[in-house]
């Protein structure tokens, strides 16, 4: 990998455009798989020595959020060497972004383990390359995803537990706005390349409403029920399932805050979103039913309709579009679906011992990146990567 990094620097120095590289962060194998996005080959691997999750790039370095007993921000140079580790109080799903000038890293993390749904998350600002923690801005509860505006002025977080979108002003280091989602939640976000539209695939939630009512007592008596005491009357309740709005896509105007809602197929949950480089198409991947079935769809953002259903590729963690368009990378698709299903099913036992064995099983599961030709709706190639890939980012766009 070091040789590959030196070769990349040499090509840049000679004025030759290097192919974009897709960095796939593999949590359980504690490494990064590097994919040449033009040749669609695995170009190398980078050992992290920690369970990485998300990656960003600045001034020739990659920055990775990781956990290994304690949270860390890792710096990885162009030769594939981990050159610095900054201990930070990070949740396992902490995301990272770099400012356009490469001098700052923004890390979004949930609250401490065991209180992520009750303690507000944070956006941490770290100076680069000195690795100094500069400041912290509080956001909503349990942020699961975040996106950074192209100008680097604004960051958006999907706050799962508080059912909100937080809008962080990075210029003045403050929480600028909180967008409520009602009874809906969102676990993933996408931003149009020009930064003018934020896309949120909301998941309808169901609220249980419990009511006490004298009218219920009267109705029971009219229908032949025996007379009831006051205490029995107080205990008589009715539970009503109140559903939120149907599955839909929120398109938020980032300048004015206007929201436009469009119906989309019932992908619940939506696991990943990606926008085409021209900003015209949104790709959504999610589950389609209680059984482990999934779907990848293309949604025309101008016509507001689904224009293609590419089918089921098994569980995947992220979507990445080639910077030139035309190809979509599905991160973490199953290499062996049956083996993966058995390993994931072991978590249902919900005991520490079962979880330990399940993680050991998952380390042996073959995971892949499926590369899809969007125009012809066909799989170009499937590449084997590390164990439990989660986050991914493109270097050299």
Please supply descriptive tags for the structure shown above:
four-stranded antiparallel sheet, 30 strands, 397 residues, mainly beta
Question: In words, what does this structure look like?
Answer:
With 397 residues, the protein is mostly beta strands. It is 12% helix and 49% strand. The protein has a domain at 206-243. The protein contains five helices and 30 strands. It starts with a helix and ends with a strand.
N-C termini distance: 20 Å
How many beta strands in the DSSP annotation?
A: 30
| Helicity, as a percent range | 10-25%
Strand content: over 45%
Could you tell me the radius of gyration in angstroms?
Answer: 23 Å
Please count the helical segments: 5
Low-confidence stretches: 5-16, 213-244
Sheet with most strands: strand arrangement? 3-2-1-30
Shape: globular
The structure class reads mainly beta
Question: Biggest β-sheet: count, sense, barrel?
Answer: 4 strands, antiparallel
What average pLDDT do the residues reach? Answer: 84
